[in-house]
Write a structure and sequence with these properties.
This protein has helices at residues 3-23, 35-65, 70-98, 109-120, 133-168, and strands at residues 103-104, 129-130. The chain is mainly α.
């Protein structure tokens, strides 16, 4: 697919992720302070993390077994980034709603998305930060995912550049061969 096609698909994925993020209802049936709500919340978070791990693992396996074009691989990583941002942002927002004090400076969905993306970008301005133990643990899990995603993206880019450079650069002549058909004047 052409570069505009990749950009359109990635932009569409980001737009869909934002629409989902800002429209998903968060008023669940269970009260978070009651034991069913806690169990449901923990199980949901663990299922989300396991699902993300599985998705990342499947993408890595796909790249290793049948490497598509670099654009296709970047698309896959960007899709994973969109999913990671939505899942962690929703978790952070819900956590702060039901356990005030877990974060300092996180009050809205936009604050949660901002915190997630600044953590993904390894920026950490400090205006929004984890204070409680649950928030810190969730942030550490996100950092682990972020490192895998950033490492995968860096690998895709460097391997693509390396392949292109190897295709441009002519192979050196083998020992004893003369390059370009010129007479051997070394004897």
């Amino acid at each position: 697919m052409s570069v505009p096609g990749h950009a359109l698909r990635n932009g569409g994925a980001a737009l869909c992720a934002l629409l989902l993020y800002y429209s998903v209802p968060l008023n669940g049936v269970f009260e978070i302070d009651a034991w069913p709500g806690r169990v449901f919340g923990i199980v949901s978070f663990v299922a989300g993390v396991v699902g993300l791990a599985w998705l990342v693992w499947r993408r890595i396996q796909y790249f290793l077994n049948a490497p598509p074009s670099a654009g296709g691989r970047v698309d896959g990583v960007l899709l994973v980034v969109c999913i990671v941002c939505v899942v962690f942002s929703l978790f952070y927002y819900r956590l702060q709603q039901h356990r005030p004090g877990e974060f300092d400076g996180l009050e809205t969905r936009t604050d949660a998305l901002y915190y997630t993306m600044s953590t993904l970008g390894t920026i950490g301005y400090g205006d929004v930060h984890a204070v409680g133990q649950v928030a810190r643990i969730a942030t550490m899990v996100q950092i682990a995912f972020d490192l895998v995603v950033i490492g995968t993206l860096a690998t895709i880019v460097t391997s693509s550049v390396t392949r292109r450079l190897a295709a441009i650069r002519p192979e050196p002549p083998a020992a004893g061969e003369v390059s370009g058909g010129a007479p051997d004047t070394t004897r």
